[in-house]
Design a protein that fits this description.
single chain, 205 residues, Rossmann fold, 5-stranded parallel beta sheet, 10 helices, 5 strands, 55% helix, binds adenosine-5'-diphosphate
Amino acid sequence: MLAIGLTGGIGSGKSTVSALLAERGAVIIDADRIARQVVEPGGPAYGPLVERFGAGILAADGTVDRAALAAVAFPDPAALADLNAITHPAVGLVMDERRRAELGTDHVVVLDIPLLRPEHRQLLELDAVVVVDCPPEVALARLVELRHMPLADAEARMAAQPSRQQRLAGADLVVDNSGDLDQLRGEVDRLWEQIRQLATARADA
Ligand code: ADP
């Protein structure tokens, strides 16, 4: 198994790259999807969230109302820190469990993590970190034109993330997504070749 961390700023095209890697045979472990699962009733973060934030964050059917939770947690730094302290370790544990289930296989496992931090490399035993990169103005245009996000929301979400330079500083491999989708497919072919070489080098070691 080769474990690849995949990250990129919002609007960079990370989800698109993840889907293209899945087409090429990669096993995808998606942090966003797991983040939704851990807060479902019965999930490991559900009880601690209700205990910390109260029943006001719940919808009538007992599920966590993400908008209500965001409304109480996002404006208050201490509350946000608590939210992250409850959810991040739960997500990390599930990701690690899924990664471990692939040990001993010849799979390329891609851990898709929007906010990949330096410590993830060790915690999740990543063999390489791939950053999907494009100029911020291109990402912003995609969010507004293709995802129909209000401009102010898109700008706020981009401003809340690490900078392009910070992301690139943590990259072993970079996918350039400043061009069109055809160019992106070419970039992902090139990436897949680099990943295969890493896998071969690993098998020979
Ligand atoms: P992220 O997961 O990084 O936020 P997405 O993969 O969802 O970004 O891409 C944002 C939007 O831009 C989506 O609508 C996607 O289809 C589109 N997109 C991504 N890359 C390109 C590209 N090279 N050319 C045109 N549209 C793109």
